[in-house]
From TrEMBL:
A Pfam family annotated for this UniProt entry: SdiA-regulated
Annotated compartments: Cell membrane
Keywords from the UniProt entry: Cell membrane, Membrane
Family: Belongs to the YjiK family.
Protein name per its UniProtKB record: SMP-30/Gluconolactonase/LRE-like region domain-containing protein
Length: 314
């Protein structure tokens, strides 16, 4: 009788069965850990105006934007400005078709993660926290940006930036280490403000997301849900802050007191690595995702209900 090690085919079958057994166990464990729902509105007085189960559209982007990162509104309806992780260029994209309309070089190639603008002034965020500022001009394809340095560094891995018209600041979120960790910062993800008037960064978070609070909402138990912000945007009608995390595929909405209003778990089949988020002037929401094994995408969500105009917009 042949011994098992003398039967290569039998050995292969045994190994295959073992691997399948481990995989099945992992899948079962994952399914048991997954929440029963993917949308959580915490405040009964808050209406979350988007339905992630019914996206208005999802468009695929050119190969140049496979590693699309930040988003901000463009200068015309359905147009967005974006950056990708490696090139010192910004791209103007049609959100309806995914067409690349133009590109503008502003600096040499680095690791750029976010983009925002105030009027024609554009701000591009580097992963080390440096902000590259320049004036957008339609008539040119290259400009020279001015670098605004902050106290962030590569260990913070800053990925999200947006303009906040309510405070006239740039909101910046680090994906990794907090700037000056204190107290319960191991469970709080800070939102920092860069004052455009003084061009100074507040060294302490102005707002934050509490991972333990998010975990209690999602799991119903005293358990943290990991949030590593990759994008940030301010709702132009409510003033609430939308924070996107590619880790955990989650969107968290907080108010100006850092109270969680809503949590949305994003479907990984569509949003494989969500990194960009912004609003259109009509309240539509745009979310971009890198294409891990395919092309990058931009999803459009139509705002539901009648928007309420803020004092800032009157």
């Amino acid at each position: 009788m042949n011994k098992i090690w003398e039967s290569p085919n039998l050995i292969s079958i045994v190994i295959l069965v073992a691997v399948l057994g481990v995989a099945a166990g992992y899948v079962a464990f994952t399914l048991n850990q997954r929440p029963e729902t993917e949308s959580f509105t915490v405040d009964d007085d808050y209406f979350f105006p988007y339905n992630f189960d019914r996206l208005e559209r999802v468009v695929k982007l050119p190969n140049d934007l496979k590693e699309i990162s930040g988003l901000c509104p463009g200068f015309a309806p359905d147009e967005l400005l974006t950056v990708q992780d490696e090139d010192g260029e910004i791209f103007r994209v049609n959100a309806r078709s995914g067409e690349l309309l133009s590109r503008l070089r502003f600096d040499k190639d680095r690791d750029y993660e976010g983009i925002t603008r105030k009027g024609r002034e554009v701000y591009v965020l580097e992963t080390d926290g440096d902000i590259h500022q320049f004036t957008y001009l339609d008539s040119v394809d290259e400009v020279q940006a001015t670098k605004l340095e902050t106290d962030f560094s590569y260990r913070n891995d800053t990925e999200g930036i947006c303009y906040d018209s309510i405070t006239n600041t740039l909101l910046i979120v680090p994906k990794e280490q907090e700037l000056n960790p204190v107290g319960d910062s191991n469970q709080r993800r800070g939102v920092y403000t860069f004052d455009l008037r003084t061009q100074m960064l507040n060294p302490q978070p102005t707002y934050y997301v509490d991972e333990l609070e998010v975990g209690q909402i999602v799991y119903g138990t005293n358990r943290q849900y990991q949030v590593k912000p990759s994008g940030i945007a301010v709702d132009p009608f409510s003033g609430n802050i939308f924070i996107l995390s590619s880790v955990g595929n989650i969107l968290v909405v907080i108010d100006r007191d850092s109270e969680v209003k809503h949590v949305e778990l994003l479907e990984k089949g569509t949003f494989s690595q969500p990194e960009g988020i912004t609003f259109g002037p009509n309240g539509d929401l745009y979310v971009s995702s890198e294409g891990r094994s395919g092309r990058g995408i931009i999803a459009t969500l139509t705002r539901q209900g009648q928007p309420t105009t803020t004092d800032e917009q009157r």
